[in-house]
Write the structure tokens for this entry.
Amino acid sequence: MTAPAAGPLSQALLELAPDHPDLLAVSADVVKYTDLAAFAARYPDRVLNVGMAEQNLVAVAAGLAKAGFVPFATTFGVFATRRALDFIEIQAALNGTNVKICGGLPGVMSTFGPTHQAIDDLAHLRAVPGLTVIDPCDAAEMRAAAVAAYHHDGPVYLRLLLDKAAPLPEPRAPFRIGEAVRLAEGTDVAIVASSFLVGLALAAAQRLAGEGISAAVLKVSTLRPFDAPAVAALASGVSAVVTAENHTVVGGLASSVAEVLAREGLGRPLRAVGVQDQWGPLGSFEYVTAHHGLTEDAIAAAAHDALRAAEAGAGAVSR
Amino acid sequence: MSLERAAHRMRLRAVRMAEGKGEGYVGQGLQTADVLAVLFGVELRLAGTGGEDRFLLSTGHYSIGLWAAFAEAGLLAEADLDHYGRDGHPVAMSTIDGALPGVELTGGSLGHGPGVAAGLALGLRMRGSDGRVFVYLSDGELQEGSVWEAAMFASARELSNLWAVVDINRTQADGPLVLEVEPCAAKFRAFGWSCVEADGHDIGALLAALDELRGRPGPKALICYTEIGHGVRLIAERERAHFVRVGDDEWEQVRRELEGTAP
């Protein structure tokens, strides 16, 4: 039997394992579906399966951390946050426990519909004091984020973006927790993007340039702590702001950006690309993303809409 | 006899704490004294005091009993008990992990202790430690599904260093058990645990039960049948309440009754 291929999480764990004997993985019956199989094939004694029991997954991980291990606990994002939220809040976040909760199938990545699409995990966890929340934008960043999560002393929720995201152009800035990165400069509109929408935002910005619109792109891969200074600096140089996220527009990136704009007194029209406060269908990634408008087209359209609102607002003020 | 005397001192401390605060889980403090006197008096060899055992109080609002036991074991100064439940003081109405040396779990949200204890027991075994993990939980807590997630996991992983102390007082927040938990021992046995039942106010029976469990395989459950407010009729006979109200004028009577029963 050939060894399973290592995706970005297994690659990170395989890289860390030889020098870090405290590294463990724990899963709630999704070793194969959260990219732990390759790590488990190489280190079978360092992968524990608790079965289909997400509360116990987080509790056991917290107990292992108390014994001095650094567990990566994997389940799907929906189950981590909908079934085990109390355990994440109390046994991970409140206690500052050194566990890394990994949420598979982030946003609309699942073809299996609302039961498996974690469209609200960030909203739940953004409200949890003491927790670091990471939403990587492509596979390479996913791998780097897992390594960074290991080295971060404290509880982390890491969204497992394993595939389907277009890789960012290289070379890229090294991944650092809490640091938003400006990928394109622009003077008309700013696109603040996360997850696989970062790649779509870059494509949308290029298209907008062809239409005479100068669009900046900011990649936000850490939702908490949120890089408010980067967002404020970006927004102050443009007339309108668009957010684009693999999540409902309630409580995630759009809300985080809106809070910064309000706090800084930066009155800019804001348009949010994301799941529009609704449940979605089962179906292929292409079908589901088209249904929710998680597309390059939708980002470009939102930029136009936001700029129209900015112009109308400017006219209103001058009258 | 010395354990009976320790339990009696712990009951006096529980009453002192609750009276000082003017309210509190005095019923649970009285109820847990015998079991905790045995555990802290002769059974546990705690990490930080020369041993490797850990004690996790899942039922956080039983902290009043834990503080009394800590004082008996020398982990807390007697004077610290005067701050029970006072704003800003770690001798609190519930337990926060690390708030005081020896507090190993944040225990207020019920059903968390067994899973954390199972993970800790597994981790200690992987580290080659001989330490045991004791988790104290209550019967009402057994209604939380997470308890049984942990119970299934503990036996499947043969965590013979995990001990659960299940305190059956047949009371929960809404009063007398609102959902039957018996047969409790049969449930744990069905989940693959070694299990012994004992009268939670009979020191000799508790010691014998612990001895009986010691050599048994897999995770172990000591099921203790207790009475809320045990040792003070005024409290035990009051309407079976989770959070007993004692009038300002009644504390003197409570203390007199307790002092009159010194072993």
User: Anything to note?
Assistant: Chain A touches chain B at residues 48, 50-51, 53, 55-56, 58-69, 86-87, 90-91, 94-95 (CB under 8 Å). Chain A has a mean pLDDT of 97. The first strand of chain A starts at residue 23 and ends at 27.
